[in-house]
């Protein structure tokens, strides 16, 4: 049964020209220069205004090449400020050699890599008997402090053994947690929703990682205030019109870190704040289509979809029918 909805904002005559939001993540897609008889590869690199860097690489090796290993290159970085880096292998294996000091790690799924860095120099070699898919996430420590409370951040760095600067370590992580970073950027969404989704996925991963590292964290929280906060956030989201809040603004609104709020919300409702907002707005769109004659492309744009076809796909996945069928 659908919830009560305010959908008047979907019928007004506000200009719906494309958003030029400064919150839009900047993404560059690069074809990796492999000889065609060796491999094909793509590197997608995204940077947000908060300084988060997301790098997602895919390498497909040609089995007929006869190579068991394929050098991916040497990489040296110097950051403006200390960062927390996460390296996830979704498929395949890669050898990472830290050149200073000399350390070698065989990286594969179910064991994510973590680092606390100001600078680094590494060499990467793929085990080319299979495809390789990886995600690297780099978050400034200063911004991480805005996402996590200081106690949780300190606990996380200590338990991952990267509390000291320029340290790197691997730690077993359940696949269900690592997978959160596999598809954390949806290019079909409009600028502000795309940025919000990326923040939400990063928060989901960090929150789940913290809970995994300290299974007592949920029990140690006072659940009653958290339950009330989650209910208040839900009620607040349901009163919004076309506005799409950032996770940081939600934290300011409800007086707690976005990470904590997202954890409380997920515990109470079984989905993240962003997931709830997306599903709720699809329900608003359902009612708007059923009750009015507003063009689909206008409704799609107002609830955050950059193209009407992406909206139709999401609508059909949720309701098992197309938007057009409501008007036939």
Structure description:
With 328 residues, the chain is α+β, with helices and mostly antiparallel strands. It has two domains: 8-21 and 188-326, Homeodomain-like (Arc Repressor Mutant, subunit A), CATH 1.10.10; 26-176, Sandwich (Jelly Rolls), CATH 2.60.120.10. 38% of the residues lie in helices and 28% in strands. The chain contains eleven helices and nine strands. The chain has helices at residues 141-147, 150-159, 175-178, 191-213, 217-220, 223-239, 247-254, 258-269, 273-291, 296-302, 308-319; strands at residues 26-31, 39-47, 53-61, 69-91, 93-99, 102-108, 111-127, 132-140, 167-172. Strands 1, 2, 3, 4, 5, 6, 7, 8 and 9 form a nine-stranded antiparallel sheet that branches. A hairpin with a 2-residue loop joins β5 and β6. The protein is globular, with a radius of gyration of 22 Å. The two termini are 22 Å apart. Residues 216-223 have low confidence and may be disordered.
Brief characterization of the structure:
It is built from 11 helices and 9 strands.
Topology of this protein?
Blueprint: E1 26-31, E2 39-47, E3 53-61, E4 69-91, E5 93-99, E6 102-108, E7 111-127, E8 132-140, H1 141-147, H2 150-159, E9 167-172, H3 175-178, H4 191-213, H5 217-220, H6 223-239, H7 247-254, H8 258-269, H9 273-291, H10 296-302, H11 308-319
Antiparallel strand pairs: 1-2, 2-3, 3-8, 4-7, 4-8, 5-6, 5-7, 7-9
Content of β-strand:
25-35%
CATH superfamily caption of the largest domain:
Homeodomain-like
Query: What is the number of beta strands?
Result: 9
For the CA atoms, what is the radius of gyration?
22 Å
């Amino acid at each position: 049964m659908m919830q009560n909805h305010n959908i008047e904002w979907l019928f007004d005559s506000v200009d719906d020209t494309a958003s030029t939001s400064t919150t839009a993540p900047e993404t560059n897609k690069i074809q990796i220069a492999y000889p065609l008889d060796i491999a094909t590869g793509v590197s997608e690199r995204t940077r947000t205004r908060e300084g988060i860097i997301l790098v997602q690489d895919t390498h497909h090796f040609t089995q007929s090449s006869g190579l068991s290993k394929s050098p991916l290159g040497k990489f040296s970085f110097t950051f403006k400020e200390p960062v927390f880096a996460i390296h996830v292998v979704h498929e395949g294996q890669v050898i990472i050699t830290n050149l200073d000091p000399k350390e070698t790690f065989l990286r594969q799924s179910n064991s994510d890599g973590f680092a606390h860095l100001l600078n680094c120099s590494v060499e990467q070699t793929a085990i080319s008997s299979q495809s390789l898919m990886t995600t690297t996430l780099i978050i400034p420590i200063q911004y991480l402090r805005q996402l996590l409370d200081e106690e949780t951040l300190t606990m996380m760095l200590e338990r991952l053994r990267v509390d000291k600067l320029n340290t790197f370590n691997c730690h077993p992580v359940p696949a269900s947690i690592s997978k959160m970073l596999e598809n954390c950027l949806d290019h079909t969404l409009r600028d502000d929703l795309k940025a919000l989704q990326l923040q939400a996925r990063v928060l989901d991963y960090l929150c789940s990682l913290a809970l995994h590292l300290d299974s007592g964290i949920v029990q140690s929280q006072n659940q009653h205030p958290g339950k009330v906060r989650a209910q208040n956030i839900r009620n607040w989201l349901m009163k919004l019109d076309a506005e799409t809040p950032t996770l940081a603004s939600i934290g300011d609104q409800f007086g707690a870190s976005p990470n904590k709020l997202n954890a409380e919300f997920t515990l109470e409702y079984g989905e993240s704040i962003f997931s709830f907002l997306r599903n709720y707005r699809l329900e608003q769109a359902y009612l708007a289509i059923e009750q009015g004659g507003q063009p689909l492309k206008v409704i799609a744009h107002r609830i955050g979809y950059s193209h009407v076809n992406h909206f139709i796909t999401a609508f059909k996945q949720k309701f098992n029918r197309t938007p057009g069928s409501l008007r036939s």
